[in-house]
Amino acid sequence: MEISIKTQEEIEKMRVAGRLATDVLNMIKPYVKVGVTTGELNNLCHDYIVNVQQAIPAPLNYKNFPKSICTSVNYQVCHGVPGKKKLKEGDIVNIDITVIKDGYHGDTSQMFMLGKTSIRAERLVKTAYECLWIGIHQVKPGNYLSDIGKAIQKHARSNKYSVVEEYCGHGIGKNFHELPQILHYYSPKAKDAVIEPGMTFTIEPMINAGKRGIKVLPDKWTVVTKDHNLSAQWEHTILVTETGFEVLTLHDQNDIFYPDN
Ligand code: MF3
Ligand code: CO
Ligand code: CO
What we know:
The chain is of the alpha+beta class. The chain has helices at residues 8-28, 38-52, 119-136, 145-158, and strands at 56-57, 70-73, 76-78, 92-101, 104-113, 162-163, 169-171, 178-182, 200-203, 206-208, 214-216, 223-225, 231-233, 236-240, 245-247. It is 26% helix and 24% strand.
């Protein structure tokens, strides 16, 4: 498999899918409150995607994933399986939405903070957000894919955080996960490529407050930090344009965030 360069028609479909994924996050926002269960959030998103958007929740049955969204709370890194867990005051939770519309995928996630959160948690969530955007700003034709991870890792380290290496961003389109892999750290051994217009991929750094080590729970999906310190993640789906990037999971390109360093 090669890295696919999307046609104008495909790009239009990716824009639609990206917008729908973002709409789900905006829809669910008012429900993310102390006392709600992650299973209830899953059901609300599922019904909205299927009935209102007439789209498909990509996670459901993907490699046997049992639910329609991922919800990763506190020391859960990613791929948290929604269930009976009630969100409580001070929790931080990542909600990760992927929809398929007209055969194309849109993938985005964000952190929510429940009630009054600790300064420690807030600083982690903020830094993870900056890491995502610092990575996005590396996206332009002629740069290397590795520039993305290099910049993210530098920012995480300068804040004394670590970057998870086992999971990465990914090409996206007809497939949920396709080439290229987008590492959020630098590895001289990793396959690198020049960034080209028409590529579509996600950037989704997982930033840990403690060490980078992770393990997968017996449910075979939920990824947690080994040291049980907090983890935070944000994700966007990106199109490479002739001059830079378009964030397909933003409604308005005026919402581009410029970290100030
Ligand atoms: N949405 C995740 C990503 O960003 C993938 C979730 S796979 C699932 O790539 F099966 F857990 F849904
Ligand atoms: Co993704
Ligand atoms: Co995702």
